[in-house]
Design a protein that fits this description.
heterodimer; A: 273 residues; alpha+beta; C8orf32 fold; six-stranded antiparallel beta sheet; five-stranded antiparallel beta sheet; 17 strands; 18% helix; B: 472 residues; Dna Ligase, domain 1; five-stranded mixed beta sheet; 15 helices; 31% helix; 21% strand
Chain lengths: 273, 472
């Protein structure tokens, strides 16, 4: 499946700040079943993009823009070929052993509720069965709702109200899996929807959990499915903060408004081999 | 508990050679003169304004640390042993941190359990594979030393993040020189006033290769509300470097700049007294307003040195402490010169069982606690306190270690009833530069002012003493 991506993040400032500093995790890498064709990042302001790899192997770009900045657009576009791997993620760049991904972070503290929820799922089956069970139960338990949560909502907070967005679903899944002793991590990326809705107002987030003998397996708790060729993996981390597409700050200036436009399309022609 | 070793009177009550002159002087000086100078010392400290804040106390914002005018004395031979041991220990700490964020050979060899590193909140995944200038992670270490007899020094704790207290070492000496010149004329004492020069030389030596010939060094403070702010401003002044807060710095093209009245000036080395969590809101806590956004990008690009490096807590945690003898052997192939206090790791089942059975004989410490908070001193605790602590231990054993209650050595100390022995420890400061290791002879002696008390932390009412290392 060949997917074309165009992703704009537009910041508008009430009073132009003196400068803006950002770190981007917006560049996908190749792995088995994911092949990046063209990819580019354009910043609307004059600046130098410094490319690095972070400690998890994600590609990052850092920049600072001198103001006054009235509007700043981060434009990303590219195309990626994907193949079905049945959710198993191989050929990725791994900088840590899976054990690192048992680490608790502020956003993924399970708290007694999630720990109990997870413990109740334990059965005689394999780790993979347990994870599928967690996926199904979590999807059933939660309601997708963009209103009550925000970027800093913790897994426990979202679980308490049983509502949230893909980020919250992912954090809860991660917290639950880790509380069961299963290494789990946050994935940020894009999801091509099969229902024909091509224009989205956010990227997507899901998780990968480490299964003995199989390796990393991707689950999309917000959709209640395993990852498919429609999932485009961009960055991983211990939680949202480690994989966030954009982390930034500004000096001075007033309120900012943020507009995100993501357009995903399936390329009409298949690549001929 | 055994009778404590007194550093003046020794094991048999005869005065030990290093204390001969001091003991004679204490016999000569009139009590009212000593008392007068004691009060004068307090007045001087008040005037200088050397204070610190105790967290969790509403009534006293800033307070004076009690100063004891009777110096603590170490012989040249004792210091020679200590300084060799300190240098060895800090070398091993640096090698270990480099390994943890690099090849992880110590994990593969099973020297330290993997989860103790990966699940440790002070481990920084962001530092993985990151090179730091000249491979020096801990440029400034404060190693807490206690003594139990004539021969034996133990390391009680390693401080490899942002150890404080060196300003007291310097001020104590200055005050003593002013108040007791005659006592100095009767001894040959190694100076400590070169510490700021040694620190600056150390910091300059670890500047990144892209730095100017004369590297620009700044001290980054969290600001006036920090308990050690006095020390931050004191040190910046003594070093002749700028004292900055996060908002005084900014990142441009992966370099760090300081805002000055003459325009931006590049910064090469940041002596930071700000915790990892707050350094860069783009890499760590997003709500931190104390740090410098983008600092980690400049750090990763190798354009700035942070002293100490990010993530050094992975080596000074109380749980890792118990593995230090093995760490020294593994990285240096040497026997540790300085011993560790025997430590039970409550994360291990057998150790936990022992600790629960013998808790009234032990000191139990929280792995991530510091400043004497979150600990239980078994022999001094009542039944209720022990029951509470036992419950805590059982619910999260990995958070605790336990040690025997040591009979810490005592030194003669001025108290209300005259001169009496009080328990002491010692925090020497070990500076590691690209060229060499520098240790100013002595350090900060902390003294428990209450009779019998073993808690020397200033946050728990401990005082300080000037520490003399005799020259030859």
């Amino acid at each position: 499946m060949r997917i074309l991506i165009a992703h704009d993040t537009i910041y508008r400032y009430a009073n132009p700040p003196a400068s803006v500093v950002q770190v981007l995790r917006l560049t996908p890498r190749n792995h088995d079943g994911q092949y990046v064709g063209a990819w580019r990042i354009e910043i609307s302001a004059d600046c130098r993009l410094d490319a690095h790899e972070d400690s998890f192997g994600n590609l990052t770009h850092a920049f600072s823009v001198d103001g006054p900045v009235e509007e700043l657009t981060i434009h990303v576009e590219g195309d990626v070929d994907t193949e079905d791997t049945h959710g198993v993620i191989r050929g990725t760049i791994e900088r840590f052993p899976p054990a690192l991904f048992l680490r608790e972070t502020a956003l993924t503290v399970p708290g007694p509720d999630i720990a109990d929820f997870a413990a109740a799922l334990k059965g005689d089956g394999s780790t993979l069965d347990l994870l599928h069970n967690l996926l199904t139960r979590l999807y059933g338990e939660m309601t997708f709702d963009a209103d009550p949560t925000h970027a800093a909502t913790t897994a426990a907070e979202a679980f308490a109200i049983r509502r949230g967005v893909c980020q919250d679903f992912a954090h809860i899944f991660i917290a639950a899996a880790r509380s069961l002793g299963i290494p789990a991590r946050y994935v940020s990326g894009y999801f091509f929807r099969s229902d024909g809705v091509n224009d989205q107002n956010a990227g997507h987030a899901w998780v990968e959990a480490h299964v003995p003998d199989l390796g990393w397996v991707a689950f999309d708790p917000a959709n209640g499915i395993s990852a498919t060729p429609a999932h485009l993996r961009v960055a991983v981390g211990l939680d949202y903060l480690g994989a966030a597409p954009i982390r930034g700050t500004r000096y001075g200036g007033g309120a900012e408004s943020l507009c995100v436009r993501v357009r995903l399309q399936q390329a009409q022609q298949q690549i001929q081999n | 508990m055994a009778v404590a070793f007194d550093e003046m009177k020794g094991e048999d009550g005869s005065v030990r050679p290093a204390y001969r002159e001091l003991s004679a002087w204490l016999g000569e000086i009139r009590p009212d003169v000593l008392d007068y100078r004691r009060r004068e010392a307090e007045l001087l400290f008040r005037r200088i304004g050397i204070t610190f804040a105790v967290y969790g106390e509403a009534d006293s914002q800033e307070r004076l640390i009690p100063f004891d005018v009777i110096p603590r004395i170490l012989s040249a031979a004792e210091w020679a042993l200590l300084s060799r041991g300190l240098e060895q220990r800090v070398k091993a700490i640096n090698a270990y941190i480099r390994d943890i964020y690099g090849k992880r050979e110590s994990l593969r060899a099973g020297i330290v359990p993997e989860d103790l590193v990966y699940q440790n909140p002070v481990f920084r995944p962001e530092m993985n594979g990151q090179k730091v200038p000249h491979d020096i992670y801990v440029a400034i270490a404060g190693i807490d030393i206690v003594r139990v007899d004539d021969q034996t020094f133990y390391v009680l704790e390693d401080n490899a993040r942002t150890p404080s207290g060196v300003s007291y070492m310097l001020e104590n000496r200055e005050i003593m020189l002013r108040l007791f010149p005659e006592l100095f004329s009767r001894h040959r004492i190694a100076p400590v006033d070169n510490y700021p020069d040694e620190l600056l030389a150390t910091l300059q030596s670890i500047a990144p290769n892209s730095a100017a010939v004369e590297p620009s060094v700044v001290l980054l403070t969290p600001g006036v509300y920090n308990s050690a702010y006095y020390e931050h401003s004191f040190l910046a002044d003594k070093l002749g470097i700028e004292l900055v807060e996060g908002r005084d710095l900014f990142i441009k093209g992966e370099e760090v700049f300081m805002r000055t009245t003459q325009g931006p000036k590049r910064v090469d080395v940041i002596y930071r007294r700000l915790d990892d969590d707050f350094l860069d809101p783009l890499a760590f806590r997003p709500d931190s307003a104390l740090g410098v956004p983008g600092l980690m990008s400049a750090y990763q690009a190798g354009n700035v040195t942070l002293a100490n490096a990010v993530g050094t807590g992975v080596a000074d945690d109380k749980a890792v402490y118990s593995y230090m003898p093995e760490i020294v052997k593994f990285f240096l192939g040497e026997e540790p010169i300085l011993k560790n206090v025997p430590t039970w790791r409550c994360r291990e089942e057998q150790h936990l069982a022992y600790v629960l059975d013998n808790i009234e004989k032990l000191v139990v410490k929280e792995v991530h606690g510091s400043g004497g908070y979150g600990m239980l001193i078994g022999p001094a605790a009542d039944k209720a306190a022990i029951a509470v602590f036992k419950a805590k231990l059982k619910s999260a054993p990995a958070n605790f270690i336990a040690q025997p209650t040591l009979a810490l050595s005592t030194c003669p100390t001025c108290v209300d009833s005259g001169i009496a022995p009080r328990h002491v420890d010692l925090r020497p400061f070990v500076l590691t530069g690209r060229d060499r290791v520098r240790i100013v002879p002595g350090g900060l002696t902390r003294v428990a002012m209450k009779a019998g008390s073993l808690v020397v932390n200033s946050s728990q009412g401990g005082g300080t003493k000037d520490t003399w290392v005799l020259d030859g």
